[in-house]
Every structure is written in structure tokens, then in C-alpha cells.
Amino acid sequence: MLKKRLIFTLLYNSGSFMLSRNFRLQAVGDFDWLQRNYDFSRISNYIDELVVLDVTRKKRNLDEFCEVLKSITLNNFVPITVGGGVKDVDSARKLLRSGADKILINSGLFNKSNLARELSEEYGQQCVVGSIDLKRSKTGEFQVWSEDGGKLSEASARDLLEIVLKKSIGEIYLNSMDRDGTGQGLDLEILELLPKRVNKPIILAGGVGNSDHLMVGLKDSRIDAVATANLFNFVGDGLKKARQELVAGGIVLPMWDLEFRSMHEASSLQNSGSHE
Predict the structure, then answer these.
(1) pLDDT at 276
(2) Is 123 exposed, middle or buried (0-12, 13-18, 19+ CB in 10 A)?
(3) What average pLDDT does the structure give for the chain?
(4) Which residues are catalytic?
(5) Residue 160 in 3-state DSSP?
(6) Which of 7, 121, 171, 230 is deepest in the core (most CB within 10 A)?
(7) What's the CA gap between 222 and 193, in Å, rounded?
(8) What does DSSP assign to residue 107?
């Protein structure tokens, strides 16, 4: 059975890490706050990937972001996907040299038609993640927005998804703007937009506020990974406890932490009635 993934997302804005609710940002704390509450040398045992997005609304400072990224990646041993304002191969190269393993592109999927291909030719398709932000219209239909949620795409969400899935990307990150930061659970209806056969891993984000929401998403056969950016609900040991609950609930996840793996194996043997 293929293993699912638990992904934690950090939103960065000009020196601060943010909470987002329906794409409206609220500062939570700087890097010192993040390190006190999320020691990634420890937390990395309980997540499968980390996504770091520069959501700065004003002019982005790539060099500053790279320095923050270097600090985050120090003693952090999970794959890290980085995005936000990636415009060309040069900017992607700086991020990769600062500790990123994969590059996420959002607006570049639409306003730079060759960006995904150029990145995949330079670094491999597995290095490129395509991100799509979706929001319901007043009539309930999904629409695709880009430019930090400020630009509406004229084409239908279904058509755009089919186009993006054909691009040179390794996986796709689908984010619900309506559920973003609400903690009300994932909008699984987004998955109805996908073609019947999808040959790329699907990450779903937007609305995760607790381990039950993670469980619902990861039990869906169409979803390969679930991402949460909720800094408050998973603070401290929140991610560790969430992972334990997921594994106890039957979700097949990689086992990075040796102590956690031993506990899980002992529990599995006990549940199976084995006396070895």
C-alpha cells in the first residue's frame, strides 16, 4: 500500500510567520517564535514534508527569504517545498541552494506558460509542484484565482486543472480559499474537478484544524497528502499527537521517529494477538 503524507505549511511575510483566513493575513511571530513553538529538529520526525511559502503582499525580498529558509532547514531532515514569487529558473536556483528540495509555482502556471517546463528541464519534473487556489463563486461553482488571490482566471476550474495536470510538474497542491484558515475541514468537492485518471500525486489544503480533518482527507483514495498551515492548533506536540492518531486510525504513513515506530509496532502486534 502506498504511504500517505502529512504536510505542514508555513506562511512567511516580511520577517513574520502568518495565519491566513480566506487569504487575509495575520502576523503570529518571527523566526524566534517559530523555533520556540515548532522546533523542526524535533517536529520533522512527525511530518513528511514542509512547505514554506512567501506570501508577502508588497515587494518580495528573495535574499531575505533565502536567509530565513536556511535557518528553517538547519537540522530539519524532511523534504522542503518552497514557493512564492518564483518567476524564473534563477530565483528557483537561489531557493534550492538555500535548502529547498522542491519548488512550488502558482501564478507562474498561468502567466508564464513555459516556467514549469523550464524548471523541470533544469531540475527534473519531480522537483516542481503546481499550486492552484480555488474559490467558490456566488453560484457555488469553483473558480481559479492567482496573484495571491487577487486575479480571477476566466477559464473554468475544470479546464484549468486539466491543463495544469498536463504541464511538467511532479504533483499538484490544491488549496481551498473558502476553507483557508477556518478549521472547518477540507472541501472534498474540489476533487470532483479532477479527471477520472490522474497520474500525479494530489495534495489538498485549506480548512484543516485538527487530526480528524487530516484523517478524513487521508482516507480519501484520491488524495496522496494533506497540508495544514494552522500554527495555533498544532503548536507544541500537536503534530506528534496528530500523527499518532492518524496511524492508530489506520492511515499508512512513513515512520521517521524510532521511538514512535517501536510503539506502533508493539501496538500492532498486540492488536493482532501475536505473542512473539
Answers:
(1) 38
(2) middle
(3) 91
(4) 133
(5) helix
(6) 7
(7) 12
(8) T
Residue with cell 530539519: 76
Among all chains, which residue has been given the C-alpha cell 513553538? 37
In the numeric block, the cell 480533518 is attached to: 213
CB of 249 within 8 A of CB of 257? Answer: no
**Sign of the alpha-carbon torsion through 196, 223, 217, 107:** negative
Q: What is the pLDDT of residue 257?
A: 62
Grid cell 494552522 is found at: 230
- Cell digits of residue 96: 534550492
CB 49 within 8 Å of CB 7: yes
83, 105 Cβ separation under 8 angstroms: yes
State the maximum Cα–Cα separation within the chain, in Å, rounded to a whole number.
62
CA dihedral of 48, 25, 23, 100, whole degrees rounded to 10? -30
Our CA angle for 16, 19, 25, nearest 5°, is 80
| Residue entry with cell 512567501 | 54
pLDDT (tens digit per residue) in 79-138: 999 999 899 999 999 999 999 999 999 999 988 889 999 999 999 999 999 999 999 999
pLDDT of residue 41: 83
| Domains of the chain (ranges, CATH numbers) | 5-272 (3.20.20.70)
Written as nine digits, the cell of 1 is: 500500500
Question: Rounded mean pLDDT of 13-20?
Answer: 95
Task: Give yes or no for a contact between 18 and 26, defined as CB atoms under 8 angstroms apart.
Answer: yes
CB-based burial, 206-238: b 16+ in 10 Å, e otherwise: bbbbbbebbbebbeeeebbbbbbbbbeebeeeb
Q: What is the pTM of this model?
A: 0.91
